[in-house]
Amino acid sequence: MREQDISTLEGKPSPDGNGVIEIKKGIEVGHIFQLGKIYTELMKVNVLNQEGRAVDLFMGCYGIGVSRLVAAAIEQNNDDKGILWPESIAPYEVNIVAIGYTKEPKIAEAANNLSEQLQVMGYEVILDDRKDGYGTKMKDAELIGIPVNIIIGNNFLESGEVELKHRNGQSSINNITEITSIFEHFKNQ
Q: Is this structure's pTM higher than 0.90?
């Protein structure tokens, strides 16, 4: 049926008599095909039946598309800024956004140390050590949607504080020495 024909079914009684037809968007993440005997006959694949006679097999195939699953997850989890990865399938759990990484050795050292500590704890970490500034790095962080960003910049130099910013918008300022304890708490939940 063409799309315009399908839309005319909306609200009509469903074929099974239970309710009315609703039109919803969907995405195909897997498929099943019944292939019949065509390939088993060509390949001369058979088995013995209960009477001991050779019979051709009926063949089918199925598959789940990993890239389709990723597309479905993104389609269901996004906002106007970009992707909001569910933690269970995020390519990284933590993004360390080091502002001034190439100019300020203390920021680079803190970012590297924190990255190593979190990795030892079992977290998948990406460290943004590019020369770009805060605006570019945060726009990219929101676009790719890593669940948690740790921002290390001027506040760290002044007071030892970093911002823990979740992709969902929640944010807190913490001393860098508290970060591993906070993540240890997350792991234990």
A: no
